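Annex B.
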Amino acid sequence: MASLPLCRSPSSLLPSWPHRPVSASFHPKSSSSPVAAQVSVQDLPPQDPAPPADSRPNGTGPGSSNTRYLWVNPNSPRAAGVVRARAGSGRRSRLASAAAALGACEPDEAAVAAALEAAFPELPSEQDAVIVLNTAAAARPETAALALRWFLANAGVRRKVILYNVVLKLLRKKRRWSETEALWGEMLREGVQPDNATFSTIISCARACGLPSKAVEWFEKMPEFGCSPDMLTYSAVIDAYGRAGNAEAALRLYDRARAEKWQLDPVICSTVIKIHSTTGNFDGALNVFEEMKAAGVKPNLVVYNTMLDAMGRAMRPWVVKTIHREMVDQQVQPSKATYSCLLHAYTRARYGEDAMAMYRLMKDEAMDIDVVHYNMLLSMCADIGYVDEAEEIFRDMKASMDSRSRPDSWSYSSMVTLYSSTTNVLGAEGILNEMVGAGFKPNIFVLTSLIRCYGKAGRTDDVVRSFGMLEDLGISPDDRFCGCLLSVAGNTPAEELGKVINCIERSNAQLGAVVKLLVDRSASSESFREAASELLSNARGVVKMPYCNCLMDLCVNLNQMEKACALLDAAQQLGIYANIQTRTQTQWSLHLRGLSVGAALTTLHVWMNDLYTALQNGGEGLPPLLGIHTGQGKNTYSDRGLATMFEARLKELDAPFHEAPDKAGWFLTTSVAAKHWLETKKASELVAV
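Smr domain-containing protein: predicted structure tokens.
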């Protein structure tokens, strides 16, 4: 049998296999062979003659060289992979070079054309154009439109709208709205039909540029071009309608999304929650929040912050605490906006402990706290009497190195109000001096609080001196300032009352005339009633009740009960005191919450007379239960709560009303006990002042 050769050349085995030479360099894994290797699917490389033994480095064996060659069988699957890798690597390298050249170009049509022509000696494909535009124009968006025109003219583009959409997305990323509008116009001139992606990109670009009305305008153009919005577009447009102030359209789209079972997303829900919050529909905001969770949409940080802000505006701090706990449980990392919303909610609702805890947490986290947040805290402290906490906050403000955190006129005003509410005259005067030293002039709020402080301390001459400061500074008295003077007059001894009345008259001549009629015992109750009615009819709504309360305090202090009753009757006819008395078959009630001590005593006097008259006339009789509601807590017009003052007064009258153990702020009695008490008293003796 003929012998066969043990080995044949690969080239003799496949003499006619069509191929192109492909090779790739790699480094073998062995660290002992740091030489390059060539992979070939062509013939074996020619063998170099072995060098002399003495010329081989380190005694390496024959055939050693700096390059090794590996041959791959062209029929194996590996050969095709090597070819593709080689071709793909070359294409990527070419496109990267083209993108780099384009990115380095000035935004000039000739320069862009030259760079692209050099990079693409052959016709580029549509995908080549997309890759280059995405890569190069991201760095230099100015060249995007120029490169787009070159590709449209020189590349094999089947759908021109794809390239336009690429450039539109780049302009959206850079927030170039004018260029976006210009490119849209170019599309239409070139007869390119926009698609859903075009509109979605333009709408989201308008929203990103802060132009919600433009986003709405492009959304409403979609049917004209035969495009139907998808969910992403609806999401953007609902947000745009909300930002543009068209709440009705936004809510209509949201209702459609719910009815058609669209997949909601956090952007839509956040926008709708914000719309409900802005319009005061806080229950609607809470419903959307619960609906999105029921639909399986997980709230993100923006949604949580929007809800915290909404519930803070709604004065629902208990809901704020619940949402914050949920946020922590879901491991959503809070942002500075989160802390700001929490602080705003707690300070507005006067949740002192929670607000201070949040403030200290923000300090521990080294967050920037600006003067607005500081002033919210100081205002809360002034209202609820947190003296130590306010002093701590004020010290932190003065010690801050950030100019945005230093005290302003509102900060000083809050501190004066705080010391005024606690009748700390030295503290209020010290803050006033600090304020002037810091370069701030006292405003009307500071002087109002200072006068109230002096009035509580019985320092009438200082009240007059502070009023002179108002005139020296050229500040015009407002209704709140006049109400403060009226409140001071109610607590001023009779021998010094003329000084305060003079200040009232100089501030408001009509109010001063009414006070003079009140003080003048020779003036009739009817003339006083007419003057008071005219004053209250012309006064702003927010000051009508404070004026009535203070005037009745003055009447009671001067033992002018007849005039107090005349004023109460006038106020009730004007609707200032509504629903003071309520009657059911089982209970008659007197509602005194929000009234000053003098107004409450006057109302009690009238009510007792009404009860006595009903008993004497033998008409309908008394119901089983009689109640007086004073409310609980601090009274605006007295350092003590109205309930405390009233309880003492009822004991003086030996009235059978006792505080209800299960209803805070209520004093109750039975008809039997009230009848016995009324029969033992004459009507004129019921409330002797």
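The beta strands are 25-26, 36-40, 67-71, 581-583, 587-591, 625-629, 658-659, 666-670. Confidence is low (pLDDT under 50) at residues 1-45, 48-65, 82-88. Further annotation is deferred to the next reporting cycle.
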